[in-house]
Amino acid sequence: MTEQEKLELIIKTLDLKKGEDIQAIRISDLTILADYFVIVNGTSNTHARTLADEVEFVLSQKGIEPQRREADTGNTWIILDYADIIVHVFYKDTRNFYKLEGLWADGEQVDISGLLIKE
Questions:
Q1: Can you list the domains of the chain with their CATH numbers?
Q2: Of 20, 11, 37, nearest to 93 (Cα)?
Q3: What is the pTM of this model?
């Protein structure tokens, strides 16, 4: 699976599970951490955990496992590290507090509108 296919699968999975305000930021020109950050929030801690679990499940069905999974005790920020793509799943209040998009504002916003289900 190519990096682009993996990115699209992650975004579609988050969208199907009703993740809010999904964003993809290309950061490969800024850091060696990863090529992309995917940022999303859930409506509750349980929803955030469900989003992360579903991404992990769907990718594992394709034989792709995260190198690391980190979560705080309240599931308000969960990180799935797939080396080239790092998925940040937040509870809404936690996302608003850390403003990760602002920290990586020099990255390139990826247009994902064609991947999202129109309601």
A1: 3-106 (3.30.460.10)
A2: 20
A3: 0.94
